Amino acid sequence: MRILITNDDGIYSPGIAALAKIASRFGHVTVIAPDVEQSSMGHAVTHSRPLSLKKSPINFEDIEAFRVNGTPADCVALGTHLYATTDIVLSGINMGPNLGNSMWHSGTLAGAKQAVLLGIRGIALSTPVGKTEPDFDVLAPYVEKTLGILFENKELGLYNVNFPQQPKGIQWTRQSVRLYDGKIVPGVDPMGRKHYWFTVSPLEPAEQGTDRWAVENDYVSITPLRLDLTDEQQLRKVQQRQPEFS
Ligand code: MN
Fold this sequence. Notes:
globular; Stationary-phase Survival Protein Sure Homolog, Chain: A; alpha/beta
């Protein structure tokens, strides 16, 4: 199995080093990741300048690794072009959760999503960062088990995985879509000028069976996702009301 790994925290993140090490037990791994952090870039692609690929052995021992001056989606597009026999793309392990509505701006998920857009299986992996750094030695057995479960399925699919800090099991979940407030917090910079921080925090508690609930209750959350965003119910409703307009 040929595995391509990217992330949105950049090539020097400990999360991508941990993932590459664990994934190499399943197949041949190549790492192609952004040269600087690209968190919350969503599915941005670089179209107005060329991309460059530079060898980046730091962090990866015997695994071939490259850094790219682009986004996670760029890295996957470029990586699957250069390594056309790629079977699966992994993105992460992100230092920070990607749960519920945060999937909309996640660069980590976009890396996996770009793979699926190109007809290759994609898995995004994330873990919350609290006051302490994630302990990837604690997470390693659960990362390995989760990859084993998802690698068994050879169908094209997109999966979003989130690891709690101290997992006690693994659950299949759906995306929590309870409302979030995209809150702007004003502040003042050292020169006395006004500035604004964008923060996202949930307004309502998570419902059981969702990704947020699982991680809050110390379960690894695996959510199968789809690219088709069509609201089927709403589509039927508006079509029944008036099938077309002249
Ligand atoms: Mn990130």
